[in-house]
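Appendix B, Record 12. Input sequence as logged:
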Amino acid sequence: MMTNPTGRLTQGQFSFLPDLTDAEIALQIEYGLKKGYAWSVEYTDDPHPRNTYWEMYGMPMFDLKDAAGVMMELNNCRKTFPNHYIRLMAFDSTRGVESIAMSFIVNRPKNEPGFMLERQEVDGRQMRYTIRGYAAEKPEGERYGAA
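Logged structural output:
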């Protein structure tokens, strides 16, 4: 049984949907701004599910009132890293801690080779599992084509 028929990376909100248009992304940003969230843009070429710390592009955008500022930063990141995964993160600081309220991918490489599940037999009949990204075999910056 195939649980992800698209074969695409599924992290964050909207992962099983077709890519959001810039207009749809701006609507999500506006929604977050109305809730008082602060936005940031992050990118990586190693989207392993346990790699939760992506590189931040620029600084977190506190006190914004318009989605245009976030979209400008996103478009600059897309120009700089066209072959990387890019996601938007919205932080909710209303409880005194920076907790992620929204997270979704807004840019993907053209080719997403996916992940391999490696099984290893250990003591007795126990199995140990490891997830390895096919693209991670290449050096950083060369994983999804020219940077």
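DSSP finds two helices and six strands in the chain.
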